TrEMBL record:
Stretches assigned to the OmpR/PhoB-type domain: 117-222
Organism: Spongiactinospora gelatinilytica
Modification 4-aspartylphosphate, positions: D52
Name recorded for this polypeptide: DNA-binding response regulator
Entries under Pfam families matching the protein: Response_reg (PF00072), Trans_reg_C (PF00486)
Compartments where located: Cytoplasm
Keyword vocabulary terms for this entry: Cytoplasm, DNA-binding, Phosphoprotein, Transcription, Transcription regulation, Two-component regulatory system
Gene3D superfamilies: 3.40.50.2300, 6.10.250.690, Winged helix-like DNA-binding domain superfamily/Winged helix DNA-binding domain (1.10.10.10)
Length: 228
């Protein structure tokens, strides 16, 4: 049974999430502040953390940093902060996904399932993936159909493909591909993602694999016919 630690200072929300998650056969523990969350995580070792950012004793981003100091447990932020700066800060601190309040319980459950699947697949990096009608071979750096990618396009694509289904923050992508001094140059990402879609997506205007998460970052969504 998957263990989920829910961290929020709203008692009604904690109760609702405990009921909904328990009904779906998750084992649930709750914490109402950051200190209790860090202590519970250390004692209980959850498989996933659902974390609010507006906690009474410390900011949720501090909790993320505290967890990331010793564990890679997946963290799904659940917060009323809808600004892109808040989302980017949480993702860069180490959160795996971000859901904005008010939220639909079905969406949160879907995000939890997706993060849990990715965690179960860690260490199994794909050698080849299919994007539309093209097969991308990461080892040999080739794309079927004679498609040619520039070194920068390859680097950007590799970061996304090696994190299948995971939201990769804008700042993290910019730092990885271009360097720390370029973390505010989001126009670079728009330009290169547009180029990758033109080369790889069946319909670049309606991408199904290289997805933009507005204000947050980008996500590679594998097809059902993904290969390894």
């Amino acid at each position: 049974m998957t263990r989920i630690l829910v961290v929020d200072d709203e008692p009604q929300l904690l109760r609702a999430l405990r009921i909904n998650l328990s009904a779906r056969r998750y084992e649930v523990a709750v914490a109402a502040d950051g200190g209790a969350a860090l202590q519970k995580a250390a004692d209980w070792h959850p498989d996933l953390v659902v974390l609010d950012l507006g906690l009474p004793d410390m900011d949720g981003v501090e909790v993320i940093h505290g967890l990331r100091g010793w564990t890679s447990v997946p963290i799904v932020v659940l917060s009323g902060r809808a600004g892109s700066d808040d989302k980017v800060e949480a993702l860069d601190a180490g959160a795996d996904d971000y859901v904005t309040k008010p939220f639909a319980i079905d969406e949160l459950l879907a995000r939890i399932r997706a993060v849990s699947r990715r965690t179960g697949q860690q260490g199994e990096e794909p050698a080849r993936v299919r994007i539309g009608s093209h097969v991308v071979d990461l080892a040999s750096k080739t794309v079927s159909g004679g498609v040619r990618l520039t070194p920068t396009e390859w680097h950007l694509l590799e970061v996304l493909v090696r994190n299948p289904g995971k939201l990769v923050g804008q700042r993290a992508l910019l730092a990885e591909v271009w360097g720390e001094v370029y973390v505010k140059e989001t126009n670079y990402l728009r330009q290169y993602m547009a180029q990758l879609r033109r080369k790889l997506e069946p319909d670049p205007a309606r991408p199904v694999h290289l997805i933009t998460e507005p204000g947050m970052g980008y996500r590679f969504v594998p097809g059902n016919d993904a290969i390894t």
